[in-house]
């Protein structure tokens, strides 16, 4: 069973994304209230070589040889990927063995670091986040390491986006009654107008968050914010692409690996495996009876988790 590679998973932004998880479980410098992976257990700023980088590269190469459909190779997963100081080496090696574009999903907290910016220059797409530009709201939502400064994050974003030759897609997670008021949105717009990004991508809470009090916005509410932030802004749409049935073998292990990083719905699982929703539901019932997974209801939608994540 793979340790570092999961998927390809259906991504609302990246199509079929082969996830590469280079961070130990919940090793992060943020502890976001909306995180779908759960609460941070190791809040740290230190960059380390957490794993043997050759082993990570070998797993990526194995998936590439299998011929599975992949739109992006995406460094993301259980924590903040830029905390792995082998990230630049891995991106460089991956670029040498495939033409599939490389993406990095990051909270943007280390873009003030020259070394991190240099490593990310080799990627094709970088997807940083910026959920708030007011100090109190930023600390309330993202609960960063005590040594992280919001001004440094914003300056790092500006510097990186100015020099990066690839695409920067800035994600903003909008949370009901926390960062959705007009005053905060005006401040956000002033900052995003100064950052050289191709897209501003609005997201909201649609999966079970780390904290129960966190609520998402409606489509109409997001549309109003999108219009306010301007033509570069878009709402991240639901995933519509389906995999062919030829890649549905060994789906059980594949689904369990992905569930460790993110909860999934029946629809998600059907898209990943290519099997009909009814058949997927039957297989999930079997896994529940085995005690391998559990289900969770949120706003009339069932999400599945591995039991070890309870």
Number of contiguous helices: 10
Q: Helicity range of the residues?
A: 25-40%
- What can be said about the biggest beta sheet? 8 strands, mixed
CATH topology title of the largest domain: TIM Barrel
Q: Please tell me what the overall shape is.
A: globular
Number of domains: 2
Q: Give the termini distance in whole angstroms.
A: 21 Å
Tally of extended strands? Answer: 12
CATH architecture of the largest domain: Alpha-Beta Barrel
Stretches where pLDDT is under 50 for at least 5 consecutive residues are 239-249
Strand adjacency order, main sheet? 1-2-5-6-7-8-9-10
Radius of gyration: 19 Å
Helices and strands, in order, run as: EEEEHEHEHEHHEHEHEHHHEE
Instruction: Provide the CATH top-level class of the largest domain.
Output: Alpha Beta
Description of the structure:
This protein has 310 residues and is α/β, with parallel strands linked by helices. The chain has two domains: 5-241, Aldolase class I (TIM Barrel, Alpha-Beta Barrel); 259-310, Winged helix-like DNA-binding domain superfamily/Winged helix DNA-binding domain (Arc Repressor Mutant, subunit A, Orthogonal Bundle). The chain is built from ten helices and twelve strands. It has helices spanning 53-66, 87-97, 114-120, 135-142, 150-163, 182-192, 219-229, 251-259, 266-273, 277-290, and strands at residues 5-11, 15-21, 27-28, 42-43, 72-76, 102-106, 125-128, 167-174, 199-204, 233-235, 293-298, 301-306. The strands form three sheets. The protein has an eight-stranded mixed β-sheet with strand order 1-2-5-6-7-8-9-10. The protein has a two-stranded parallel sheet with strand order 3-4. Strands 11-12 form a two-stranded antiparallel ribbon. Helix 1 packs parallel to helix 2 (87-97) and helix 2 runs parallel beside helix 3. The protein starts with a strand and ends with a strand. Mean pLDDT is 87; it is low at 239-249.
